[in-house]
């Protein structure tokens, strides 16, 4: 059975919205987009690189896949993250996308997210990783499908925005399996479901 790892960039007050740039996700009038890049450093790059060193497939919600397609799908910059993402099989969970032709190696999963991902999880294949896609993560967490979390906890609060767990999340216990603190104060914590 495949395992699923969710990697989420999060503020101290739990916000996961609009990490990369001001226009990334302005839903709900969110005006703090682009809060994350100022905290990037070599330690973070090295830790994220470890996750990409293992073969694996990626799992996306529609919005994140569309954003990543624009940012990474056309890039030819020699960045190892670009090469990894373009080569990986990308499963996209969506009820509204007509197709996933815009980014190579993308496969559309139609229907209820928890049902389609549960079916995918039991099929033979590489482990699955989710980067972002907070709505998908919440849905899969509620269904008990996420095995591991890597949380990059940033030293700031935003006071508003979509949070990792908006609303109730089921009681779930995790074990801390490792942690690293970057030079800019980001705590990278690895958790495994008990």
Automatic annotation (TrEMBL):
Domain of life: Bacteria
Domain Bacterial bifunctional deaminase-reductase C-terminal: residue ranges: 3-187
Record-linked InterPro entries: DHFR-like_dom_sf (IPR024072), RibDG_C (IPR002734)
Pfam families the UniProt entry points to: RibD_C
UniProt name for this protein: Dihydrofolate reductase family protein
UniProt organism field: Saccharopolyspora oryzae
Organism phylogeny: Bacteria, Bacillati, Actinomycetota, Actinomycetes, Pseudonocardiales
């Amino acid at each position: 059975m495949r395992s699923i790892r969710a990697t989420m960039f999060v503020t101290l007050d739990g916000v996961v919205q609009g990490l990369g740039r001001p226009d990334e996700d302005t839903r709900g009038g969110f005006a703090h987009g682009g809060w994350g890049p100022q905290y990037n450093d070599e330690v973070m790059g090295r830790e994220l690189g470890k996750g990409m060193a293992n073969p694996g497939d990626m799992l996306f919600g529609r919005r994140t896949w569309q954003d990543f397609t624009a940012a990474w799908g056309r890039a030819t910059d020699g960045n190892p993250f670009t090469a990894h993402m373009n080569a990986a099989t990308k499963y996209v969970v969506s009820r509204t996308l007509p197709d996933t032709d815009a980014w190579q190696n993308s496969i559309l999963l139609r229907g209820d997210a928890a049902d389609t991902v549960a079916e995918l999880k039991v099929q033979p294949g590489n482990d699955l990783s989710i980067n972002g896609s907070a709505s998908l993560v919440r849905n899969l967490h509620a269904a008990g499908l996420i095995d591991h979390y890597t949380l990059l906890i940033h030293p700031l609060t935003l006071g508003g925005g979509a949070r990792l767990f908006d609303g109730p999340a089921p009681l779930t216990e995790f074990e801390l399996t490792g942690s690293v603190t970057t030079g800019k104060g980001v705590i990278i914590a690895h958790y495994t479901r008990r």
